[in-house]
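# step 3/5: fold
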Amino acid sequence: MNFGRGPSVVLNVGGTRYSFSREVLKDFPLRRVSRLHGCLSEQDVLEVCDDYDRERNEYFFDRHSEAFGFIMLYVRHGHLRFVPHMCELSFYNEMIYWGLEGSHLDYCCQRRLDDRMSETCTYYAAEEPPGEPDGGPEGKGQGRRPAGAEGGKWLERMRRTFEEPTSSVAAQVLATVSILFVIVSMVVLCASTLPEWRVPENRSVEEQSRIIEAICIGWFTAECIVRFIVSKNKCEFVRRPLNIIDLLAITPYYISVLMTVFTGENSQLQRAGVTLRVLRMMRIFWVIKLARHFIGLQTLGLTLKRCYREMVMLLVFICVAMAIFSALSQLLENGLDLGTKNKDYASIPAACWWVIISMTTVGYGDMCPITVPGRILGGICVVSGIVLLALPITFIYHSFVQCYHELKFRSARYSRSLSAEFLN
């Protein structure tokens, strides 16, 4: 070391001191610490550390002391692991500061870091639109705004108004109106299935329900068209699940109107048409539109998206167990000539129904084993179902909690921007 004096050097990291000899620093495994050996002046030292005490020959680093302690364990023993109860990304930032990389971590911690970075990058890539945040050059008035900047800003504001219910007062009003239309349309749909509504004396009520239905469809159609116009990526807009659900909820109405035009106003023909009844019932998809305005439904959708592997694993468990227990139950109840034959278990596909309601502990009681071996098998089937269903639940639960916190964080961000709008 060409700067400082004394045979030893003291590193003060967040209040924890470490003493080394000068020669050790020359080939120190941490790149930032080894840079101290080549410093020629105090200015060079302050480019490496945060402060320097000439009297004590002490170099101060304003960093996480516990994280550096784990990094020193790597220097001494060659194993680098995460600090318990510390964010993986925060520890990774400490590693980068001291000159380490993700490859220095043990394999188990590398996987944790990769998963964490993948989730974070996916979340922000999906939720954070690319572009300049508020308070950038436009907000500070630096330079002239480019041509079309006002139009782009207006489109971005419109997009947030329709996509983010908590981003502004107008967005909250729009979301409230949309929720009211969904509720009204659901009430009309449910009431239209009542027998009292289908009698000839209630023609006026039926006509009024059609008018209400047309108004709701008009609102949903206008909302969908405006959101499509102000979206940045039209192809990505069409591929989003919620937008697909919107199309599935709106399109049947227009198809039924076209079929009415071509078939005439013959109500008997319309009621007899299975296609029309199916199309009218597809309006139940409007309920899923509430996912735009409620974090709970968004959390459910995001959890299913991230846990599809666990869901597939759960289905595989159930299918394998169903195949085994249905074959055994059919054999014990009907396949063996024991004097009693249970007609409910005449085939393996028929026994599959009993297996699935037993494994899920529903137990309708419409079919049950009557032989002693069959009842023993039924008990084993129920216990196995509880165990198999509980195995992947832990992974799904943790993913659900993480998704909920992410969506809450996002909602809080837009709520802060809403508070700033009120203050301004």
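# step 4/5: annotate
The CA atoms of residues 256 and 262 lie 10 Å apart.
# step 5/5: archive (pending)
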